[in-house]
Amino acid sequence: MAAGYRMPGQPDVWPKADAILVAPATFNTINAWALGITDKWLVGVVAEGIGKRIPMAMVPCVNRAYVAHPQFNRSIDTIWEAGVRVLYGEGGFVPNEPGQGNPAIYPWRAALDAVGDVLDPASN
Length: 124
Hints:
By secondary structure, the chain is α/β, with parallel strands linked by helices. It has five helices and three strands, in the order E-H-H-E-H-H-E-H. It has a three-stranded parallel sheet, sandwiched between helices. Helix 1 crosses helix 4 (70-81).
């Protein structure tokens, strides 16, 4: 049986998260999250995660054409200002030209290391 949305007063079926990693985060996910548009389950979880103070890291996966849109950098800033560790640019995800992405070089190691960092901020 697939888990659906729970009704008010029903117990949460998911265990409490120690941390959340959002990767690869798409243009749509990043903008919806920053704007609080929670029509997708994932965006609802991470939007609520900010309020629950769940340690989070996010690594985008967008091309330079999406990055050129004026909302993108505002959304990155909003998420970062909310306390989410954002790995974008040097040391994280560096956007490519449209159609030139290489999944083999996505910064998974940096993403996983960021989860350790948000779990233990003293180790930074």
